[in-house]
Amino acid sequence: MTHNLILNTQTLDIPALLALQEKPAPFTPGEALFWNDPHISAQMLATHLDPTTDLASRRPETIDRSVDWILSTLGLPAGAAILDLGCGPGLYTSRLARKGFTVTGVDYSRRSIDYAAGYARDHSLAVAYRYQNYLELTDEAQYDAALLIFGDYCPLNPHQRATLLANVRRALKPGGRFVLDVSTRECRRKHGSRNGWYALESGFWKPGPHLALEEGFDYPEQSIWLDQAIVIEADGKISVYRNWFQDYTPESITAELEAGGFAIESLWGDLIGQSYYEASEWIGVVTRINS
Ligand SMILES: C[S@@+](CC[C@H](N)C(=O)[O-])C[C@H]1O[C@@H](n2cnc3c(N)ncnc32)[C@H](O)[C@@H]1O
């Protein structure tokens, strides 16, 4: 059976597709800042707010438990200042503000920050929201604790990770705490992209008809994984979306955070207090800055 994939005078750019089949060097970027794309950010916000999925944010009952666990583990004084990096639509910040903490949320999805600020206004919650790239954070000695939740450390390249750690150190008060979770290879084994394709009238990546070619690339020596989606629109335009993941072991995250000036206080299997175990998909990390 044959079909003519090309209508009118368009030609399909096969050489471009051939080049995109090659395994890229680790952390080669795809489309820049795609979380801020008007269409994709709308899909993302809907996914963050969908209580039935763990795809963009964890489910509400998990977030409730996580906030309680983080607060009891840190034992912060009433009103302590907490910075949530990559706060998304404010699912953690809102809960922290309701418990009386002084909360700042930073995110570079304009749509998520606008939603979070609107929610805070409607519910009379005093959260300071800022549309900002946390790699450009300049706050100094302001916070008792900083949070980076749902694996947001893992898509960063080594230089960006060092920058982020320096920014968090600068932002924290002496003795301040930094809590984050990072994924493990087990997470990638379970959730990494498998090679496949689909065509849609409208979908996550594009509002109009498109063909998506999804592929997972493994870099086992470096514990790096790439989920790549090549998206071809009806006019032949090709967009490449890349999600990089640096996965960790307890040893590798300990070494990296210590090198960045943080002392590990405890390691967990998640951020709700489960012990770390061999097949954990996550590592929950509680640290304190070295003074
Ligand atoms: C997987 S979501 C997690 C959101 C939130 N922590 C949660 O668990 O509900 C990652 C968030 O980090 C934000 N983000 C990613 N890179 C960022 C950066 N460099 N600066 C600020 N925000 C960033 C994204 O816009 C997105 O809202």
Task: For the structure shown, list the relevant keywords.
Pantoate--beta-alanine Ligase, Chain: A,domain 2, 291 residues, binds S-adenosylmethionine, 2 domains, alpha/beta, 29% strand, 4-stranded antiparallel beta sheet, single chain, Rossmann fold, 30% helix, 8 helices, 7-stranded mixed beta sheet
What does this structure look like?
Strands 3-2-1-4-5-11-10 form a 7-stranded mixed sheet, with helices on both faces. A 4-stranded antiparallel sheet has the order 6-7-8-9, with no helix packed on it. The protein folds into 2 domains: 41-183 and 248-289, Rossmann fold (3-Layer(aba) Sandwich), CATH 3.40.50; 185-247, 2-Layer Sandwich (Pantoate--beta-alanine Ligase, Chain: A,domain 2), CATH 3.30.1300. The termini are far apart. 30% of the residues lie in helices and 29% in strands. It is an alpha/beta fold. The model has no long low-confidence stretch (mean pLDDT 94). The site of S-adenosylmethionine has 19 residues, from strand 2.
